[in-house]
């Protein structure tokens, strides 16, 4: 057991290496994950209802008519800053969890991921319109910063007591009198949200100081809302991958490393490729955020806005050669929380956080980002080798086999046949399933010789 200083949490040292995990049944997987994470044996029973009962669902959003389930998987092999994590991922796309686990194993061979996470500073925006003297407004706001911060901190005394709350004020001129939009200034309130994602907190603070800002500048108040481009709330994850971990039966480690770097450079030069490159990263990030009840849509908006900040859409992660293999780095804004939000109502999200043993929002951010970098590495390694479709379609074939009605051992038999034929379609799966059932019903043939 390890006590994490400053959190009050006692964490079980776990291993994220569970060989042969994918071959186990769901019940045995649950047992092994519960044992590894130090959870009660019945912890996963909450997922039998999707982690959300009907009454809780009715309290989360409007006009509820039911619940909609998605698979919750566990990505293995993750070691981040010398600590192992079992990474919960909720996603409908086959191959993502397996690919992230495989890439994490490659990175593990190089010592695991290394992460840096900044303070959880969010931006609250107050739009000031009809500003007659924008430069004078900036000066007035700067001079009144102590008053503005005092007014803002009074709104969130609990957060201030925990060491967070409003920390600074910034202002920019967006347009001047005589221009089409008239005089317009935007004020940024910088707020340390501690372990919360912070949307409601930030919005409340922005609304609370808007009138004061209008009084200081003689402006009309426009919007008061957080920004999802949280450039003060950044996470950076790095990975080293040795040649031996990249090698397979078709490519040497050195050749694979060269190919991955070439694929990375393609994304750096072409925004059309960068969009798909970043989509692969968000496969991993979003799956972790969805599992833990976080706002993955806000994360997506911030990530893509950050990727385009320089005027050209760029990749969030890049890979370079090293003397012994590959070096990768992912840098992105990432606002997450381990308190508040859906966690109050969603038992599945609470279980995912317990499985992950994330003791803080910073901890969760680095795990989600590591899942993003792992997903990116897996995609580039596949694209640089045999192509993305071989592994993806092998897993997709199982989904098609199940959709055709296959159960038990027939799932793998149907899946392997349609994958080998290259015809991963429901009609062919049903045809093969029908034939296999007839063969099984016929049973073994006995030959009698007189």
Task: Describe the model.
This protein is an alpha+beta fold and 450 residues long. The protein has 3 domains: 2-118 and 233-386, 3-hydroxy-3-methylglutaryl-coenzyme A Reductase, Chain A, domain 2, CATH 3.90.770.10; 121-227, 2-Layer Sandwich (Alpha-Beta Plaits), CATH 3.30.70.420; 390-442. The chain is 46% helix and 20% strand. It contains 16 helices and 12 strands. It has helices at 26-37, 54-60, 96-108, 134-143, 145-153, 157-161, 199-217, 243-246, 253-269, 271-291, 296-307, 347-356, 361-384, 388-403, 409-421, 426-442; strands at 2-4, 9-11, 72-80, 83-90, 114-117, 121-129, 165-175, 184-192, 220-227, 234-242, 317-322, 325-333. The strands form 4 sheets. Strands 5-10-12-11 form a 4-stranded antiparallel beta sheet. Helix 10 packs antiparallel against helix 11 (296-307). The chain is globular, with a radius of gyration of 26 Å.
What's the N-to-C terminus distance?
71 Å
Number of helices: 16
Q: Helices and strands, in N-to-C order?
A: EEHHEEHEEHHHEEHEEHHHHEEHHHHH
Low-confidence stretches: 1-11, 445-450
Shape: globular
CATH superfamily of the largest domain: 3-hydroxy-3-methylglutaryl-coenzyme A Reductase, Chain A, domain 2
CATH architecture descriptor of the largest domain: Alpha-Beta Complex
Largest sheet: 4 strands, antiparallel
Oligomeric composition of the shown chains: single chain
The largest beta-sheet arranges its strands as 5-10-12-11
Q: What does the average pLDDT come to? A: 92
How many domain regions? 3
> Got a strand count?
12
Radius of gyration: 26 Å
DSSP strand (E) fraction?
15-25%
